[in-house]
Amino acid sequence: MSRRTGKPSYQLPTPKTGGARLAVVIVAVGLAALLVGGAAGYAANGPDRVESAAADIREAEAQRDTQQIIELTETARRLRVEVAPVLTALRAEAPTGGQPGLEQARQWQQTMQRAAAPFADPPSGTTATNVARGGLRGAVEQASLAVETYLLAITGPPAQRAALTALAKRQAAQATAVWSVAATQLDQVNIDAGQGHQHVELDGGNGDGAEEGSGG
Q1: Deepest of 44, 74, 85, 200, by most Cβ within 10 A of its Cβ?
Q2: Rounded distance, CA 184 to CA 197, Å?
Q3: Model pLDDT, residue 9
Q4: How far apart are CA 144 and CA 172, in angstroms?
């Protein structure tokens, strides 16, 4: 009588794995759908958020620059009242009441020191605004040189007085020319910022003939 043994392994029933495989497939499909949905959501919403943030930055920069333009224009108007008389006196061929003396020159020197103060630590703005500010600063610096030269003329050797006085006049003329260019630039940035024409010429005029505040 033969010994009873179990069935050979090849005769054993095959385990049913269809359900497990189906579960794996379902999970994989779900993950793929989630990834695709996330990518689609980013593609749909990502650029909008980036563009919105960029627009916010541009708006903030525009507001900052507009405020700088307003403040710079107010500064130019205030300085014009102080600087214009000094340059006019230095450029005069025959000063009324004779040549200004040492006391007057000392007062001009103090005036120029006050005029230079607003440009000691300037803020950073757009290129156009920076150019206008730099032009005004350059005009004030040139006017200060004219005053210093005139001080040398009236306190130095009499033999050098005529030459130094003539040099001070040329420096004053250059300061006036630089201010004129800066005033034109400042007028333009005001227009671009929507403020309209803002004339800060030393003579108080408006070389372009435009009405104050128009063109904004």
Answers
A1: 200
A2: 10
A3: 46
A4: 9
Residue 203: Cβ within 10 Å count: 12
Closest-CA residue to 205 (of 178, 180, 171, 174): 180
| Whole-structure pTM value | 0.73
- In angstroms, the CA 20 to CA 144 distance is 90
Task: Give the type of residue at 24.
Answer: V
**What does the pLDDT look like over 57-101, one tens digit per residue?**
667 777 788 999 999 999 999 999 999 999 999 998 754 457 889
Distance between CA atoms of 105 and 154, rounded to whole angstroms?
A: 9
Both tokens of 95, joined, read 């000063």
Distances (CA, A) of 102 to 105, 109, 147, 151: 5, 10, 11, 7
Number of Cβ atoms within 10 Å of the Cβ of 65: 19
Question: What's the one-letter identity of residue 111?
Answer: T
pLDDT of 192 reads 92
Both structure tokens of 28: 């994989």
Spatial neighbors of 136 by CB under 8 A, at least 6 apart, are 72, 75, 76, 79, 119, 179, 182, 186
Q: How far is CA 169 from the centre of its chain?
A: 33
